[in-house]
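Complex 239.
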Amino acid sequence: MIIKTEMRSKTLTTRGRKCLRCKHRNRMQINLASILSMDHACQGCTRVETCCCARYEVCVDAKELNRIIQVLPEVVKLCPHLRTAGGYDNVFDEVEPGIYAIDTTESGLCIFAFVSDHRIRCSLHTVGLTLGIPLAQVKPKACLLWPLAFSEGDTALSLEEDALSFRCNSRRRNPSRRLSPALGEAIGLVYGNDLRAELEKKAKQGVRRAAVLIPAFRPTKPSINTPWQRRRGECWADP
Ligand code: SF4
Ligand code: SF4
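Predicted structure with iron/sulfur cluster bound:
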């Protein structure tokens, strides 16, 4: 597969970008106050205009790109539009050295999205669950973490600025010391359950901001035990 170096014209340039990038290699700040202020529950979107898979330009690094390429034979079973006479469509645009934007359809929807039961779903998520691959090994980590993203000059994990413009995110009426389960799980999938447990403990203690070491990447397999996890097992677009 050849990587393009210019973005296709159909890629919207005015929208935000989902790109997981921490300025520091080994440590990050966690804005717990911001994260604890919100609940998140993905039920899947029926309309492209409201879907997070169409509102951002999604970027991956070279490692993520290579892992996606490895599962393309499974992905095209859900997204036949990716198949070409010569193999697979070329879906990555190099937007910065080592950073690749995933192409979109004419409607702005991520090229890895597909529709099933009238809902927009993520083929990478579905393939990960089907093959038993930890989701962080196959789905962009920026998508796994959304609506969390890095802010403050890419140093602090916090809520995405426009998170509350999506119906799946809601501001908590009362202060809470518990992470929204879906956000806790997302942190566990990307950074491991040890960090998730550490943050849950700090949150219970009333810590509003934490500095933590970024753990070595040890992807966690999703379990399907709780209602929101079962929903994810049905492969909504976002975990
Ligand atoms: S997280 Fe789920 S419900 Fe929210 S915008 Fe994305 S697909 Fe829709
Ligand atoms: S969740 Fe999947 S379909 Fe949605 S933007 Fe990310 S990679 Fe694309």
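Residues 16-233 form one domain.
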